[in-house]
Amino acid sequence: VPHPHPPAAPASRATGSPEAGAAGVPASYAAAFYDRDPRLVARELLGAVLECRTPEGTAGGRVVETEAYLGPHDPACHAVAGRTRRTWHLHGPPGVAYVYRIYGMYWCVNAVTLPEGVGSAVLVRALEPLAGIPLQRARRGHPRRDADLASGPGKLCVALGITGALDGTPLDAGPLTLRPGPPVADADVMVTPRIGITRAADWPLRYVVGASPHASRTPRAFFRRPYIPGVDDL
DNA sequence: TCTACGATCCTG
DNA sequence: AGGATCGTAGAC
What is the pLDDT of residues A76-126, one digit of tens each? Predict the structure, then answer.
């Protein structure tokens, strides 16, 4: 039986959106939320709800894993190549989706951070499926466990039906939305190196809800430690 | 449970 | 040429 819609949360950090819910919980993040250091945005997006509406239906889930890509000074960030057609929206205003194709066959979705021209973002790497689970299961070829539906950036885009058509679309309205969810405590957040990159491979910029079975696997050789406010984002 | 590898194609 | 990945095969 599908998980019920996630409960509204007292997300004090997510303020300023125009349409607040009955409990005072914003229906989306304000632009200022994304106009900050991507490390801070990556950590705070844990617990948020990503949802994609398509003609087939609506599918979404709770964010349990993110990575920060800091900008042109980050060797692993696509911004190192400058503002090209591919990375156009990565360099655009914050609060917009940057969707790119990887390895010729999968899509990955990011939330753009910092002001226009910087080229930084947060990669959404895994979801705990919440909405439209039958649709997600069909798109993913009916895996045994729901924990295999969206436990990786490519899987997540397949499960939700996210493609390059959504590159450059805002995240506070439209078919692809990201909104506040129940906050995740600092003690539940683990920090590790980023997955699948060769440059800056030792930078601690991956944020995971440590106890979640819905996150992607952390390689055995990776260091992992609790998130430390003021150290990991300042 | 873990590691190794091929698929597949746009970008610079 | 190589990549912000995934599924499968094979070892243990």
Answer: 999 999 999 999 999 999 999 999 999 999 999 999 999 999 999 999 999
Output DSSP code: residue A185. Answer: -
CA distance A91 to A226: 31
pLDDT tens track for A10-37: 334 444 455 555 555 678 999 999 999 9
Residue A65 bridge partners (DSSP): A126, A208
> Do A109 and A169 form a contact (C-beta atoms < 8 A)?
no
- Kindly report the bases of strand B lying within 7 A of a protein C-beta atom: 2-3, 7-12
Q: Which residues pair with A111 in a beta bridge?
A: A97, A122
The whole-number average pLDDT for the span A190-203 is 92
Q: Which helix (H) or strand (E) holds A110?
A: strand A106-113
- For residues A194-217, b (16+ Cβ closer than 10 Å) or e, as one string? bbebeebeebbbbbbbbebebbbe
What distance in Å separates the CA atoms of residue A32 and residue A3, rounded to the nearest whole number?
Answer: 31
The helix or strand, by DSSP H or E, that contains position A155, with its residue range, turns out to be helix A153-160
Check if residue A87 sits with its Cβ under 7 angstroms from strand B: yes
pTM given for the model? 0.91
